[in-house]
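Final report, section 2: Outcomes. Of the targets proposed, Aldo/keto reductase is the one most frequently requested by collaborating groups, and we therefore present its record in full.
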Amino acid sequence: MKYAILGQSGLLVSRLAFGAMTFGSGNNPSVYKVDQSGAQQLINRALDAGINFFDTADGYADGQSEEILGRLLGSRRKEMVIATKGGFRVGPGLIQAGLSRKHLFEACEASLRRLNTDYIDLYIVHKTDPYTPLEETLEALNDLVRQGKVRYIGYSNWPAWQAAQAVSIQRERRWASFINGQLYYSLVGRDIEHETVPFAVQNRIGLTVWSPLAGGFLSGKYTKENWNDDQNRLSGFDFLPHDKEWGFNILDTVREIAGVYGATPAQVSLAWLLAQPHISSVLVGSSKLAQLEDNLSAVELQLSAGDIARLDEITRPVSLYPNWFTAKTTDTQIAKALEL
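The predicted structure is given below as C-alpha cells.
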C-alpha cells in the first residue's frame, strides 16, 4: 500500500480507502447488500493490504454501515482512520436532516454510538444545506473538534465557491478548518477540475474520491447491450449522469490500455486517478472479495505518461467560462519569459 498526508494536516492515510456504503440491508438492495460475515471478509482483506482509511456515513443503510464497521474494526480501531458523514435525512422528523447545529450535534453523537468509538477521525458534512446559515454549520463543526469528539473535518459535494467561503470564515475566526473535500471524480466525470481542484490545491485541501468507477460503469462489466438490465447495479443505482455512448467509447480505449498492462479496466481507471497529483486517496467500495482484490492491485499499476495523456485527452471536460477566456488571453510573452 502507498500513503499520503491528507491536506494541511498530519493525518496519514492509505492511497486507497475502503468505502463501507454496501454494508447492511435496506430499501435499495442494489447498494446495501453486504451482511456482517461478508463485511468481515472484506475488512480483513483491506487490513491485510495495508488500508488504514475507512469511510462510511450515517445515511448508509439507516446507520447499519457504521454499526458493522465499528463492530468489525474492534480492537484495531485506534490504528485506523475512520471517516463518517452527516447531513442526509436520518428520520421522519422535519429537523432530522441538514447541517444545523442541532442536527449535527445529534448526528455526530449517534455516529459515535454506532461506531462504538470515543472520537471520529474525520467528520464530513455530506452535502450542502441551503436552509442553514454557513456560519452556524462551521461553528458547530468547530465545537465538535474542541469537545474532542472529532479530530478533523471535511466537506463533500459542495461547490468550490461555498467551500472557499467556508475556509475564509474558518481562518478569520480561527475555527477548525477543512482538511478534506470528498467528491465524485472519474474518467467520465471530471467536473471538479473546473473550480474545485484549483481551489483545493491553492488551499492545501486533500481531495478524496467517491465512486471512482462511476457506479461500476468503468469496471468494464457493462456493455451497450446489458447496461440497463434489471439485474445489474447500474439499473438500480444509475445516479451519476454521463453520456453512455461517449462513456462506452472511452471504455474501448481503457480496455485497450488495460490489455497492454495485463490489467483490468477498473485497475486502469483507478490508476489514472491515483496518478493525479491533486488526489490524496480513492475510495473503493466492494460487495465481493474478488472486486476488492481487483481494485487493490491498482495501487501498483504505473501507467506511462503517454497512456495518462491519452486518457486525459479523450476524457477532457469542455472548458467553462471564464476558464476558456483566461486560457485564451494569458499573456504569452510573460509566460515565455518565465519559461512556463
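The chain has 13 helices and ten strands.
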